[in-house]
Design a protein that fits this description.
Length: 226
């Protein structure tokens, strides 16, 4: 049976102290770090590139780096993040022309491959490539900015994604990103998620360990879906 994983989004961290911030949040009980890569083209914001992953690895961060690419086109930059030490690389199906090939590019390099879906996007793309997917990432806000409110209509979509995973019989993580907090995490877990991205809810709190512990307390009452 899998464990629930909490992945703080470093988009909410203090970039003047990024090494210290990430080490602190991992020591406080986080499982991995989520890295939101935005290009001011696919989404209306510009954030960070592969040098951030390199810097974290050079600082001594050994936890998995969960990279979410919100860029278009996506294929050329994937290799840069692989070289920079990414563990998971997720991208959006409409950011590439050849979906199967892009997934295979990630897996051939030894990384885990994920597909990300915006709130209004169908999960149909999973139909023919489920055998190459290690993670399904559902956005529960419209991508581009941190600190947004959770979109409740994503809950039935999470249940749909969980059903797809169960029918596939494959070991695929189901991640949700957007508006995840102590107040929303339990409902998201009940809908089938097992991996939770939280940025401002953790990094804007006064005590990272207390916030993560409160999240785990909410999760403890929800039997994890296989």
């Amino acid at each position: 049976m899998k464990d629930y994983l909490i992945a703080p989004s470093i988009l909410g961290a203090d970039f003047a102290r990024l090494g210290e911030e990430t080490a602190t949040v991992l020591a406080a009980g986080a499982d991995m770090l989520h890295i939101d890569v935005m290009d001011n083209h696919y989404v209306p914001n510009l954030t960070m590139g592969p040098m951030i992953c390199t810097a974290l690895r050079n600082y001594g961060i050994q936890a998995p780096l969960d990279v979410h690419l919100m860029v278009q086109p996506v294929d050329r930059i994937i290799g840069d993040f692989i070289e920079a030490g990414a563990s998971y690389i997720s991208f959006h199906p409409d950011a590439t022309i050849h979906l199967d090939r892009t997934l295979q590019q990630i897996k051939d390099a030894g990384c885990k491959a994920g597909l990300a879906f915006n709130p209004g996007s169908s999960l149909d793309a999973l139909k023919y490539v489920i055998d190459k997917v290690d993670m399904i990432l559902l956005m529960s806000v419209n991508p581009g900015f941190g600190g947004q409110s959770f979109i409740g209509s994503v809950l039935p979509k999470l249940r749909e994604a969980r059903s797809i995973i169960e029918k596939s019989g494959r070991n695929i993580r189901l991640e949700v990103d957007g508006g995840i907090s102590v107040e929303t995490i339990r409902a998201v877990a009940l809908a089938g998620a097992d991996t939770f991205v939280a940025g401002s809810a953790i990094f804007n709190s006064s005590n990272y360990q207390q916030t993560i512990s409160q999240m785990r307390k909410q999760l403890s009452a929800v039997p994890i879906k296989k």
